[in-house]
């Protein structure tokens, strides 16, 4: 007798999918029909599996997704915990704005966690905190210690939500995960100081139960492709620009040379950071030309 069950893919490794169902974890493979349709199940997918009389199980159906982000991918992400290091590798405003733009485009909420603050000098940390105060002001929660984050995150992850860690390589995502979910003992590794970037230590993507939902650990990445974003839509992915734009003279204002631009007025008044506007202009150039910025090469 063939049985069917529904669940969520919590782990993927070497072609096997671990699906959490109401009766426990089932390890399964995907049917060949997905290859024919050029589909690939991802961790976070809600799926249907089929088990035959011999106990052999197959993944047979993928429910519609909210989104699919990362590499390897996580599906149905509700929230990203963006890990940015204070030092080793150095804190980068340009990378921060790239990540925030990318996740805004993907319609995913973001909280920011500053790692390695204990390794920064008092002067370095003060400078970064002043910068991040602006991001808190425009709506991004910021955490400076894993203890503070750990005390709140279980309540922040509501039913069936999937949170994922993201951020530059070597920023300390696996270390943070070890703090948040005791006993996982995710591998950590030293930073390659010659390149000022981290070595990838996460080899798989996996969901761990936390709060009423899940937290995913994924490999770090320091470069993301923003060129698929439609140039005229980019303004909407800078949250403070979108809020201010209702007071621009023109509904289609791109905040570049148009008259009576509220974004430019707030920029001049110091209420929008110059670095945010500069990064907006730089990303526009990147989308227009398809050229990779020098700092990412």
UniProtKB/TrEMBL annotation:
A GO term for molecular function: GTP binding
UniProt-listed Enzyme Commission number(s): 3.6.1.-
Binding-site residues, GTP: 115-118, 167-175
Name of protein: Small ribosomal subunit biogenesis GTPase RsgA
CDD domains listed in its UniProt record: S1_YloQ_GTPase, YjeQ_EngC
GO BP: ribosomal small subunit biogenesis
Keyword field contains Ubl conjugation: no
Organism: Lactobacillus acetotolerans
Cofactor binding mode and count: Binds 1 zinc ion per subunit.
Domain of life: Bacteria
Subunit and interaction comment: Monomer. Associates with 30S ribosomal subunit, binds 16S rRNA.
Keywords per UniProt: Cytoplasm, GTP-binding, Hydrolase, Metal-binding, Nucleotide-binding, Ribosome biogenesis, RNA-binding, rRNA-binding, Zinc
Family as reported in the entry's similarity comment: Belongs to the TRAFAC class YlqF/YawG GTPase family. RsgA subfamily.
The EngC GTPase domain, residue ranges: 75-222
Chain's role: One of several proteins that assist in the late maturation steps of the functional core of the 30S ribosomal subunit. Helps release RbfA from mature subunits. May play a role in the assembly of ribosomal proteins into the subunit. Circularly permuted GTPase that catalyzes slow GTP hydrolysis, GTPase activity is stimulated by the 30S ribosomal subunit.
Compartments where found: Cytoplasm
Domain CP-type G: 66-224
């Amino acid at each position: 007798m063939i049985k069917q069950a529904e669940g969520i893919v919590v782990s993927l490794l070497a072609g096997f999918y671990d699906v959490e169902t109401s009766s426990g974890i089932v390890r399964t493979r995907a049917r060949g029909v997905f290859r024919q349709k050029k589909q690939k199940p991802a961790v976070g997918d809600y799926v249907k599996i089929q088990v035959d009389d011999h106990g052999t199980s197959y993944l047979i159906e993928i429910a519609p997704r909210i989104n699919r982000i990362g590499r390897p991918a996580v599906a149905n992400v509700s929230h990203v915990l963006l890990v940015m290091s204070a030092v080793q590798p150095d804190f980068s405003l340009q990378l921060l704005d790239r990540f925030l733009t990318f996740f805004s485009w993907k319609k995913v909420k973001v909280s920011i966690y500053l790692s390695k603050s204990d390794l920064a000098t008092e002067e370095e940390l003060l400078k970064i905190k002043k910068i991040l105060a602006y991001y808190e002001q425009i709506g991004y929660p910021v955490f400076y210690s894993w203890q503070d984050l750990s005390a709140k995150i279980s309540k922040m992850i509501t039913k069936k939500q999937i949170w994922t860690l993201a951020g530059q390589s070597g920023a300390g995502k696996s270390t943070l995960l070890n703090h948040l979910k005791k006993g996982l003992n995710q591998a950590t590794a030293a930073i390659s100081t010659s390149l000022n970037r981290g070595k990838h230590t996460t080899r798989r993507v996996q969901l761990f139960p936390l709060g009423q939902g899940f937290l995913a650990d994924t490999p770090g990445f320091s470069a993301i492709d923003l060129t698929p974003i439609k140039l005229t839509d980019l303004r909407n992915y800078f949250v403070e620009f979108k809020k201010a734009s209702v007071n621009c003279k023109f509904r289609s204002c791109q905040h570049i040379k148009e008259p009576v631009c509220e974004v430019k007025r707030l920029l001049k008044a110091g209420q929008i950071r110059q670095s945010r506007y500069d990064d907006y202009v730089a990303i526009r150039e990147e989308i227009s030309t398809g050229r990779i910025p020098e700092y990412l090469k």
